[in-house]
Amino acid sequence: MRSPAQQAQQAGAAEAAAAGTESIGGIAAKLGLDFGFGSQATDSALPPAGAGTQAAAPGTESISGIAEKLGLDFGLGSQTTDSALSHAGSGGRVAAEQHASSSGPGGGSSSGGVPAPAASFTAETSCGIVRWTDLQLQGSAAGAGSFGTVLLATLEETPVAAKVLVPLRQGPSGIEAAGSLTERQLAKVQRECSLLASVRHPNIVQILSVCEDPPTIIMEYCSKGSLLDVLQEARKSPRQAALLSWQRRLGMALDAARGILHMHNRGIAHRDLKSPNLLVDAGMRVKVADFGFCKALDGGGDNVMSTTLDNVNPKWQAPEVLFGQPATTASDAYAMGVCLWELMTWSIPWSGVVPARIIGLKMNGMHLELPSTPESLAQLPGTDKDRAAFPRVAPQYIRVIQQCWAASEADRPAFATIIQQLTEIQKALSAAA
């Protein structure tokens, strides 16, 4: 049941639409977006789409066009050219991140597009637009997510990660788009960028700029890859293993937890927390990435998108999510427990077990195996020094994991508590050294 305030807001939005106007909340609702306004938010009416600008061709829409309708600003400037993207075709979800406050428009235009004026993103944050030709591709893929391909590139002599949201092909003049984004995919891009306007933290990957054609998010480059990559490399290389002391591993866990806490404090659950989405920079600092499933949590069930088995990885997901319940901050805590298990074992969770079997095991209350004897602790990876030191704090560390995996969501710790517990373990390990 909607509250009277919500009913009034809905009626007001309908009245505005009938008058040839549209509200920010109305547009957001049509695109499946939620900015966490709540039932008391007041939307200002916007002029009809295309007013004051040259409208895109029927059946198409540009990223900047949607941004303009939603009152968002990528810092594109009045001379920016947008490339209209057709609803048909394939594409992907962006794993974008926030960058520090800047001012002034970005430069560039994409060929064959339609001029569009700048639109307001937030008063504090803007993001420049660049041309595809401004990027110098390094000729190799830095990775691939659930949607899109990440390419290593340089922009203004700076290494960057360019996440291209559509398939690519080799064209007559170089790499070009082989598809386009659907309206729903554009909405996901818009949702993600709106969320990133409220998250700015040293443990969250920054978005630097965007490219319209092909649709690309340019992010800061984390040269070590993902946490999963780092742990798997350490398994194969004694030199890399020596870099992952328990003090460093605890520091990496704290990095991830602080990034997620920053999001939770702003009413946002990550919903897809896992080691592949925790990136590691040259200084071994962990940064949270891949916000495609993020969702604002305030306002109850209507504002929490249900996570289905089609778009989750059961290795990291909480049992209730696999049952079809909405993902929450508590399910983020469950996933954090899996990441802590990975930092302890350097193993891939549920390796060799098919997804359907993982789901069945979790629904029956089963968890990943935890070391429980001196012999099993002695088999954990790392240097001899680390294996000798860890048993002193192993009970506390394992207890944090078990709390994260509590069957009841209410019994799982908040991330502020996880940070406090990991900090105490780090101090105890230092005192014992």
From TrEMBL:
Pfam families: PK_Tyr_Ser-Thr. InterPro entries: Kinase-like_dom_sf, Prot_kinase_dom, Ser-Thr/Tyr_kinase_cat_dom, Ser/Thr_kinase_AS, Ser/Thr_Kinases-Pseudokinases. Keywords: ATP-binding, Kinase, Nucleotide-binding, Transferase. It comes from the Eukaryota. GO terms for molecular function: ATP binding; protein serine/threonine kinase activity. Residues 136-429 form the Protein kinase domain. The keyword Protein transport does not apply. Residues 83-117 are annotated as: Disordered. PANTHER family: MITOGEN-ACTIVATED PROTEIN KINASE KINASE KINASE 20 (PTHR44329:SF288), SERINE/THREONINE-PROTEIN KINASE TNNI3K-RELATED (PTHR44329). This is Serine threonine-kinase CTR1. It comes from Chlorella sorokiniana.
